[in-house]
Design brief:
Radius of gyration: 20 Å
Helix content: over 70%
Number of strands: 0
Number of helices: 4
Largest sheet: none
């Protein structure tokens, strides 16, 4: 069934990639493994509360139709996008993305 490949993939990733990628990045680029862990944990912590809210809504208020499922997905995307926008991006990064959105919506092709 599906469980076999899923378990095999998880074991393969845990036994190789999770520990070897930081070693390789340290060797090739001098990247601090602690900085990598902080870079991964920070966004996960920011998204923990919205993710819990999304799971709660999905379990206690399941969508009854396809359009309702679309609304649920859109609201979840907006919620996580707002966490990214306000929690993860610095002010200069927000300004950069806002300018790119303005250019895209105005139809301009120059950069």
């Amino acid at each position: 069934g599906v469980a076999g490949p899923l378990i095999g993939t998880c074991v393969a990733i845990a036994s190789t990639t999770l520990w070897y990628l930081p070693v390789l990045l340290k060797r090739l680029f001098g990247t601090d493994p602690g900085a990598l862990v902080r870079a991964v944990i920070g966004p996960l912590l920011w998204a923990l509360v919205p993710a819990a809210a999304i799971v709660y809504v999905a379990k206690h208020h399941p969508p009854g139709s396809w359009p309702a499922l679309g609304v649920h997905g859109a609201v979840a995307g907006l919620l996580l996008g707002s966490v990214w926008w306000f929690g993860e991006l610095r002010a200069d990064e927000r300004a950069h993305y806002a300018e790119r959105a303005r250019m895209a919506l105005a139809g301009r092709r120059d950069s």
